[in-house]
Amino acid sequence: MSDMPAHTGEQEGGGVGGHGDGTGHDHGDTSTRNLALVAAINLLGFLAELAGGLLFGSVALLSDAIHMLFDALAYVMAFAASYVAARYGTDDRYSFGLHRLEPLSAFVNGALLLPMVGFILYEAYQRFVDPVAIATGPTLAIAVGGLVINLLSVYVIEGGEMSLNERGAFYHLLGDAGGSIAVIVSVLAVEYTGIRIIDPITAGLIALVIVWSAGKLLRGSGRIFLHRTPFDTEAVRATIEETDGVERVADLHAWQICSEITIATAHVEADTAADDNALTRRVHDVLATNDVDHATVELCPPGESGHAHLTAHDHR
């Protein structure tokens, strides 16, 4: 058994940093265009809702406008990150390009939502203590327009597999749509009941939606930064060990560069009678079915993985 040499195989899936059939690059271009279009649409919506909130006295509409502004800025950041990652950083200084900009942008996006919550709650408190009259007709018209913008943006983003930034935009848009609906309901409620504090209460509910959106983004990007394994390690390990020619999986690691690029390394103890190339291919196939885009598989004889593992990780 000891005369069996260690064998290493590397495999890259399509769409990783320009490798393969280019599908990933095409999706990256589409993602970039979608984010740019949504950013432009939401900037227009922000201007309309801001003017309406200031002119017609609705803090709920004003809070929705601020929400839309931060969303638009977030989309601009996501667009910039996607554009740069797709076109720069492809030389040897960046092994996987600049795709880390995607989770970085998403994390900053989520963090920017939190101070907005404080502003909305402050304004809502002021209006709760001292309610003001709301111009129902114009406020309602602007809120409906905001809802149309949100739904149009959702239509642009939704469909197929979304990147982390697109998912972030999607969550924002759902929150925006909910905010617009809440504003519409609150305006009608104030009009027909005369209870003005409904407006600041609605603003507070919108703030809660924003907190939910921020949490989704921070968790998603944080998992990538902290190298959380993107699949069930034990299940994948068991599947590999069921593969013909595999004695044991000595080491298995997986992490993500961004939401669209998953990396994995596997150290496998193999039957000495197994064909190295065929076995490596089978292990790669298992990893590929678990959405791994780039994998490195090392084979060694049974019982020798401990020595190889220590050698590979000994940095003294």
From TrEMBL:
Organism: Halococcus thailandensis JCM 13552
Biased composition range(s): Gly residues: 11-21
Protein name: Cation diffusion facilitator family transporter
Entry GO CC: membrane
GO biological process: intracellular zinc ion homeostasis
SUPFAM superfamilies (alphabetical): Cation efflux protein cytoplasmic domain-like, Cation efflux protein transmembrane domain-like
Cation efflux protein transmembrane domain sequence ranges: 37-225
TM region(s), chain numbering: 35-56, 68-86, 106-125, 132-157, 169-190, 197-215
InterPro entries with a match to the protein in the record: Cation_efflux, Cation_efflux_CTD, Cation_efflux_CTD_sf, Cation_efflux_TM, Cation_efflux_TMD_sf, Msc2-like
Gene3D superfamilies: Cation efflux protein transmembrane domain
GO molecular function, one term: zinc ion transmembrane transporter activity
Boundaries of every Cation efflux protein cytoplasmic domain copy: 232-299
Source organism phylogeny: Archaea, Methanobacteriati, Methanobacteriota, Stenosarchaea group, Halobacteria
Cellular compartments annotated: Membrane
Disordered: annotated span: 1-28
One Pfam family this sequence matches: ZT_dimer
Bilayer topology term: Multi-pass membrane protein
Keywords (A to Z) from UniProt: Ion transport, Membrane, Transmembrane, Transmembrane helix, Transport
